[in-house]
Amino acid sequence: MARSVSNNHHLHLRTMLTPSQPPPSSPSSFKIQLGLFPKGLTVRASAGRRHCEFSSLNAPLEPRSLVGKFLGGMLQNRRQLFHMVVKEELKMLSDDRDSAIARMVISQDSDEALLHRRIAKVKEDECMAAISDVMYLLILHKFSEIRVHLVPKLSSCLYNGRLEILPSKDWELESIHSMEVLEIIRQHVSAVTGLKSNPSVRESWETTPIRQYWLARVYVASILYGYFLKSVSLRYTLEQSLSSSNCGLHPGQKTSPSFHDMYRYLSKDVMLGNKNDIQSLGHDLIKQEEGIEDIKCYVTSFHPGSLQKCAKLRSKEAVQLVESHINALFGNGKLGLSQHDDVILTSFSSLRRLVLEAIAFGSFLWETEDYIDNLYKLKDHEVE
């Protein structure tokens, strides 16, 4: 009875806060396995520039769940209430899932056991879709705080086979990182794009051909790199408070893992891992007894096994979100990802924008997972 009253009250809250216009319909979705990208992606040129508009209404991925559509309206129209309502929705989703599981457990020896198992499975799938939407909207909110909109579907930004992304928003995308982490990120960007750290305007606007499947892999790798650096920087801050000695480096030792190091780990078994892997990294670090000098030294102290663990997404909901986002960004909106190995022409400035956005997305994803997990227990992603 109490649950019914709570639901009615919550429905009343939604009725008062939901905008008058209905939310946009959600597109059909299609699934990919991270690290197992097809040989190429098809991106079709659009008829006019009006389709490549940067706004919170034009993000690549649209919410599919009722909760996601409701919160999307809140983000657009009642921004000051957004976080309060997100918190309430997370609690409701947690209660709904727990109730379905409890009924399944109680009825496991009854004639209704099969029915309640099915109900619990349906509720679990519904909650996972809703949580992925909540994650995405929280990430969009974080981007909006630095006045950056996600690049819309690339199919809407291609003109005669050329991709150009404006405005670049490099400064805003870099502003979320500390100076020490930003130096590592700039090394990553240079390794990915081939563009030096302080390029001239002419160098930035030079064009280069690039295969679309490679561009998608670069984007995913950069999401994971941002996710990795966020995890490592927080762990570094914790360990720095426990140690005041200096970290010695062997002659010739690299200052930070390169993009090529990360790219080698872009297999399904590496990218999709268990949350406990990150929490137990202390057992895998090397040279920690020598202390920590700076974050570059700290990052260097990770051996390949620990690097792999930090690059894993912790929850199934995050995995689903990244898959959906990549599909929405690089798909053609109808058929999804295809087997064509198309080549597009783009500027180094546009490549840098995509890489910086992906790194920021990964960093925000880590923070969002951490926030949600305190209100709604996320599902650990176990490698099969």
Automatic annotation (TrEMBL):
Pfam families, A to Z: DUF760
Region (Disordered): 1-28
Name the UniProt record assigns to this protein: UV-B-induced protein At3g17800, chloroplastic-like
Organism: Phaseolus coccineus (Scarlet runner bean)
Lineage summary: Eukaryota, Viridiplantae, Streptophyta, Embryophyta, Tracheophyta
